[in-house]
Amino acid sequence: MTLYHFLGLGLLLFAIGAAGFVIRNNAVVLLLCIEIMLNAVNLILASFARYLYGAEGQIFIFIIMTVAAAEAAVGLGIVIALHRGHGTLAMNRIKDLKG
Amino acid sequence: METAIFWGLSFCAVAAALAVVFLRQAVNGVMSLLALMLVMAGLYLLLGAQLVALFQLIVYAGAVLVLFVLVVMLLNLERKPARPLLYPGKPAVASLLALCGAGFAAILRWAPPPGGGPMGGAVKPAPPIEQLAIDLFTERLLIFELTSVLLLAAAVGAIVMSRKAGDLS
Predict the structure, then answer these.
(1) Do B116 and B133 have their domain in common?
(2) Is B102 in a helix, a strand, or coil?
């Protein structure tokens, strides 16, 4: 169990999240895929903090978690507004930004 | 022992992430993401970052996912699909599964021998929590305060965006 293993796992999780963002059609699931990608980045920062640098990486993780919480709140607000304006969450049927 | 825990947790993490992508109903995806968050907290514990694991449970599992569940419930978007999973014949799905298999195979194939250089795993001692607090509240104080402004802006923005147009309540 080395830094290499954690980096590989983080890379794999990020790839799954990015691929899911492209594959899926539901707006809520797209937000879930963004959360997967943020968690993969957090894992990579934590492993660098453990194996190379010390405390700095963990502070980065706290900031990223705050940004993720803010992003989830705003994103879900957008999802509610989209659902109200278009009556659907399927991304291929939402063509205009103005509801 | 730690290696066995790492492999168990990493398989669970990849399985949960794949479940988020492949389960059609949004609420099933949210529950899979909850499983992923718990597994990630275990990985942080394995990395000696206890405070991060705690915040992972409180912030993600406690706050963000509750928000997701609330929105899924509020929008009531579950018409039960014919199949619970995405159709596995799609080329994108097949290539994603192949990518996961290739990723694990690559991790196993090119793993460095233990004990040589930083990639070989010379573990630094985990920083004590006091050190984190000192760093966060002295050197990084400006960033810390800016995140509070960000959270305030996000809360106001979420309320403004999700209310009906013209409704001031």
Answers:
(1) no
(2) helix
Contact B20 A13 (CB under 8 A): no
Which residue has 């205009």 as its token pair?
A96
For B118-164, how does the pLDDT look when each residue is reduced to its tens digit (9 = 90+)? Answer: 555 556 677 788 888 888 899 889 999 999 999 999 999 988 888 87
* Number of folded domains that form chain B: 2
ipTM computed for the complex: 0.91
pTM, 2 dp: 0.87
Contact B14 A9 (CB under 8 A): yes
Is residue A49 within 8 Å of residue B49, measured between CB atoms? yes
**Out of A11, A36, A66, whose CB is closest to B17?**
A36
Average pLDDT, integer, range B87-107: 77
Contact B10 A65 (CB under 8 A): no
Is B153 in Cβ contact with A70 (below 8 Å)?
A: yes
Residue A64, domain extent = 3-93
Whole-angstrom distance, CA of residue B46 vs CA of residue B66: 26
**Are B112 and B155 contained in the same domain?**
no
Q: In terms of CA atoms, which chain A residue is nearest residue B10?
A: A9
Q: Which two tokens mark B23? A: 């389960």
Query: Which of chain A's residues have a Cβ under 8 Å away from the Cβ of B56?
Result: 42, 65
